[in-house]
Amino acid sequence: MQIKDLTTDELKTLIRETVVEVLEDFLPDPDEGIALKEEFKQGLLEIQRRRKTGTRGISAKEAMNRLGLDF
Q1: pTM of the model
Q2: Is the pLDDT of residue 44 over 80?
């Protein structure tokens, strides 16, 4: 297949994937090799589980209260 045969969406996807690939080559992951604290890891897994099951997190108002901010 040649570029002239691609649709606009296919060309955009190709460009996007190429840019991501090049950026990954030039910008290494700054967190590579760093271990996550178990508490943080469990928190991320809990968020992932809630998203999969469609369970909502805390409300914006509750988040503001936890941070000591006025809503």
Answers
A1: 0.43
A2: yes
The whole-number average pLDDT for the span 18-35 is 91
CB atoms within 10 A of CB 49: 10
Residue 56 lies in a domain: yes
Is 26 within the bounds of a domain? yes
Instruction: Give the torsion sign (CA, 41, 43, 46, 51).
Output: negative
Domain count, the chain: 1
pLDDT band at 11 (very low <50, low <70, confident <90, very high): very high
Q: Can you give the residue range of the structural domain that contains 10? A: 3-66
